[in-house]
Amino acid sequence: MTTAQVVDLDLAGRTALVTGAGSGIGRACAERLAAAGADVVVVDIDERAAKEVAAATGGRAVPADLSDLDAVDALPAAVDVLVNNAGLQVVAPLTEFPAHEYSLIQRVMAEAPFRLVKLVLPHMYERGWGRIVNISSVHGLIASPFKAAYVSAKHALQGLSKVTALEGAARGVTSNCINPGFVRTPLVDKQIAGQAAVHGIDESEVIGTILLDRAAIKELVEPAEVAELLAYLCTPPARLITGASITIDCGWTAH
Ligand code: NAD
């Protein structure tokens, strides 16, 4: 018989870099990692939000536009936990999809994560420990119409995460994707308002009948619930979880 052991997450002495940490899921991740003792580097294009989250978490604000890949290369490299989270959504049919928006989304959501992984891996390899967590989406696993750029970028992120897992395996570095369904954040609030206007229905109806149409549990995920999954991936018992895509999607992809 074994004795159950409760393992607390202790990130004292570790540095975590979270992109898009000024809002939503990124903010919740920064707060959770800081609560576990990590020094958090709060990266966001929104300087005011980055400073606010840095102040709230005792972290360091590093305002940066991730679509500027030179700026990405200049971010801190001495990082033990990397959370590739920043993202944006543009919804349009392929025949009308603005090409510049497609490129922007690939840069922010696929190329910047690659640059960051490349930047921080030498430090992780040197210390023999690293945790890379990519905030993907159900849209890293399946598609929806009108989201060509987002779905493409998230699928690319899934590939990057798996290659990172294979290369990092012998060096103490794990890499995983978290795949949320709809999470209650400003990114989704904008989509709810947009859909309500398009369909001429109220916002609660949008959530129940449009957004959560495919979800078995008709609820939005909370940002803190995503952050808790991230926290688990940083604990010692998660050391063998790598190359995985972990859904938190109310059963959406169970169909
Ligand atoms: P959000 O809009 O609340 O936050 C995104 C943050 O990213 C913002 O603070 C924004 O300023 C920052 N950002 C955007 N472009 C940037 C850029 N060029 N450079 C630096 N920072 C930039 O969004 P969220 O819902 O918290 O989404 C976070 C991540 O979670 C995204 O990758 C998103 O795709 C993913 N996700 C969200 C949901 C959801 O339902 N909200 C579901 C699945 C996956």
Automatic annotation (TrEMBL):
Pfam families: adh_short_C2 (PF13561). Keywords: Oxidoreductase. It is an enzyme of class 1 (oxidoreductase). The keyword Plastid does not apply. InterPro entries: NAD(P)-bd_dom_sf (IPR036291), Sc_DH/Rdtase_CS (IPR020904), SDR (IPR050259), SDR_fam (IPR002347). Its EC number is 1.1.1.30. It comes from the Bacteria. Gene3D superfamilies: NAD(P)-binding Rossmann-like Domain (3.40.50.720). GO terms for molecular function: 3-hydroxybutyrate dehydrogenase activity. Belongs to the short-chain dehydrogenases/reductases (SDR) family. NCBIfam families: PRK12429.1 (NF009093). This is 3-hydroxybutyrate dehydrogenase.
